[in-house]
Amino acid sequence: MTVRRRLVLVLVLALSAACKSRAPSPSLAPPEPVSSAAGSSGRTPCGGLGCMQYDSPLDAFRDALAGDPRVVSIGEAHAPKGATVASSAKRFTESLLPALQGHASDLLLELMNPPTGCGARVAEVKKKQEVVTSHQSKEDQNEYVAMGEAARRMGIVPDLLRPSCADIDGIEDAGDDAIDTSLETIERLTEKKVKELVDRDANTKGEEGKVVVTYGGAIHNDPAPAPDRRAWSFGPAISSYVNGRYVAIDLYVPEFIDGSDAWKKLVWYAYYDPAKLGAKTTLFRLREGSYVILFPRARSVVGE
């Protein structure tokens, strides 16, 4: 189903808050692995944690995709209220998503689209989410929708998460645990849908080698999450399902890093010095199949 500009329940949660009909495929042979476009030149080592710098985000993205994955899960820290530079979502849509054209079958977006029959409870849940969403850019949802529309034009089928009314009731009835329940619901719905898409591709002529892509908050895609985040992450289950052919890539805008404790807890934070590394794209390899890409800072702030 086409992603339309309509009211959806937005449960994409900011990183800082978390610390509290398909188009027919051509009759062609399976596509070459995504990594066939990889192998960028101009890589420069920049320190620990596999730090590598690139002239462009696309070069870093292609290197992260090397290895013929079946599921590529993109995470981000959502753009904050008052953001004055382009978000990760906008940059992904414009610069990185085109690299997946011909290689990806589907793009699953972390937007919830409940049935029309539970509208009253949806409104109640949205109100509860305002403790988080009020700190996010008003453009976040629109940019996800725009991403889906761009994917459609490239022949990549976009979709949203589709909770039942019972799912919405569960979030509303969770009371003070509504945020945690929301995050767990996102994990469960994403895992279920991705497995369905992987199985369908494997049994569809011409789609066998294609990639399923997810895009959402960085707290959901980690293939080796910390124990206190395990219930929120679909990474371990999906990685196991595709026999390790899973890649998690978190995209960050340096200008959004505010130095709060939530950021400082991230393993790569201590390795990233924006004054030294901010002029170029920086990639960290957290572990096998898990990467962080930091976009270049705006020229006016590099060196501050």
List keywords for this structure.
single chain, about 300 residues, alpha/beta, 9-stranded mixed beta sheet, 9 strands, about 35% helix, disordered N terminus
Characterization of the model:
The protein has one domain. Helices cover 33% and strands 18% of the residues. It has 10 helices and 9 strands. A 9-stranded mixed β-sheet has the order 1-2-8-9-7-3-6-4-5, with helices on both faces. The N terminus is likely disordered.
Summarize the structure.
By secondary structure, the protein is an alpha/beta fold. The protein has ten helices and nine strands.
Provide the low-confidence segments as ranges. 1-32, 35-40
Q: How are the strands ordered across the major sheet?
A: 1-2-8-9-7-3-6-4-5
Q: Kindly, what is the distance between the CA atoms of the first and last residues, rounded to a whole number of angstroms?
A: 46 Å
**Fraction of residues in β-strands:** 15-25%
Structural class by secondary-structure content: alpha/beta
Count of individual helical segments: 10
Tell me roughly what share of residues is in helical segments.
Answer: 25-40%
- Summarize model confidence as the mean pLDDT: 84
Topology order in helix (H) and strand (E) letters? HEEHEHEHHEHHEHEHHEE
Number of strands: 9
Tell me which oligomeric state these chains represent: single chain
Largest sheet: 9 strands, mixed
Structurally, the number of domains stands at 1
Anisotropy-based shape: globular
Radius of gyration from CA coordinates: 19 Å
